[in-house]
Amino acid sequence: MTSKIALPHVIVIGGCGFLGHHIVNLLLQQHPEAAISVLDLHTNNNRVPNVQYFDGDITKPEDVVAAYRGSKAQVVINTVSPLAATASAMAKEIYYKVNVEGTKTLLEIAAEEKIPVFVYTSSAGVVTDNINDLINVDETYPINPSNPDSYSDSKAKGEEFVTAFNGKGGVNTCSLRVAGLFGPGDRQMVPGMLSVLKNNQTKFQLGTNDNLFDFTYIENAAYAHILAAERMIHQLSSPPQNPSQKVAGQVFFITNGEPVYFWDFPRAIWAMYGGHVAPYQIKLGKDLGYALAWAAEWYAWLVKKEPGFTRFRVNYATSQRYFNIKKAKTLLGYQPLYSLYDGLEKSVKWFKDQEAATEQKKGQ
Fold first, then answer.
1. Crossing angle for the helix pair 103-112 and 150-165, nearest 10 degrees?
2. Residue 1 pLDDT > 80, yes or no?
3. Packed helices 61-71 and 103-112: angle between N→C axes, nearest 10 degrees
4. What is d(CA 266, CA 154) in angstroms, rounded to the nearest whole number?
5. How many domains does the chain have?
6. CATH of the domain at 147
7. 3-state helix vs strand vs coil in the chain, percent to 5
8. 238 by DSSP, 3-state: which?
9. Which residues does 4 contact at the CB level (< 8 Å), separation at least 6?
10. 300-319 pLDDT per residue, tens
């Protein structure tokens, strides 16, 4: 499967990470004509042939300059980000350093090096307030200026800088707000749900499971990034007659376009994995969940540990959170490559294969 729109030299920032390496793999399939490079803090994971790798820190200008010049990049796809795992003061500092300061460095040097296209991985979480439901939200919905989630807040600030930078120094920018990523190589979503299964906790349910939620299979998110790069490259030489069709300067929500009731998703994973799914549920109401999470957070603060059960996670599992992707379909031509069901099957198979390989090594 190759694309009709050719891409020149492309550098994927964070190209050894979860989303980044899927973008690299898809670029190799769809754009055999392109010279593909990766800049990442460490490049020993998820390496593939026919790709040039640069070890470097995006907050260090000299590392960015070396990678841009060494790759002769004309397209930058910035996927790099710390895992959205904790709310500690140290984590907040790292989120800001990478997602805001690192993004600024990448953009400013892109302008200096005359790189015309910059695609930024944002997050659908930039619009959340951790209180109100997000129902079929589109890009007209405002960014939350005081996001209670430090990860989402850092992504929002990074996105705002990317949008404001559009056109400066000849750099065309756009941002993709991905939601609920899962798939092969996932370190959070699917592993977290499998741990619930392995700990025999499948009978517990937060809320009433009447809240629709958007999950996105990782290869679909990767595809959207490539489409954004293609459209901006194409529009450099063939600007759209209608300015509203211009991709540069825009933000896009990216999902599978198949919102499901939240708890149906992990139950599908558990069933595909072949695990026991309890035929009944012990349901904890949202208010009770908040109370228990508050107590867990307070106790964690007292003993100076990270809480495993938080009010944010209660809200995450009990709120409506789905998005309108009409804009991405219209301007980018985005249509998910894989259905949610297909994505789940591919994901579970990958995790089972990884576990089997690990067990085989133990037996040697």
1. 20
2. no
3. 50
4. 28
5. 1
6. 3.40.50.720
7. 45, 15, 40
8. coil
9. none
10. 778 777 776 777 788 888 99
Structure tokens at 153: 């807040």
Residue 199 lies in a domain: no
Query: Is residue 51 within 8 Å of residue 38, measured between CB atoms?
Result: yes
Catalytic option among 95, 120, 151, 223: 151
The residue ranking higher by pLDDT, 295 or 89, is 295
What per-residue confidence (pLDDT) applies to 89?
65
Residue 167 lies in a domain: yes
Q: Tokens 């809240």, residue? A: 211
Catalytic site includes residue 151: yes
Give the range of the structural domain holding residue 155, as residue numbers without chain letter.
10-185+214-258+321-337
Cα–Cα dist 167/276, whole Å: 54
The confidence band for 28, taking pLDDT boundaries of 50, 70 and 90, is very high
- 68 domain residue, yes or no: yes
Please tell me whether the overall predicted TM-score, pTM, comes out greater than 0.85 for this model: yes
In sequence order, the 6+-apart residues with CB closer than 8 A to the CB of 297 are 307, 309, 310, 311
Across residues 166-171, what is the average pLDDT? 97
| Interatomic CA distance for residues 296 and 294, integer angstroms | 5
How many Å apart are CA 91 and CA 17, to the nearest integer?
18
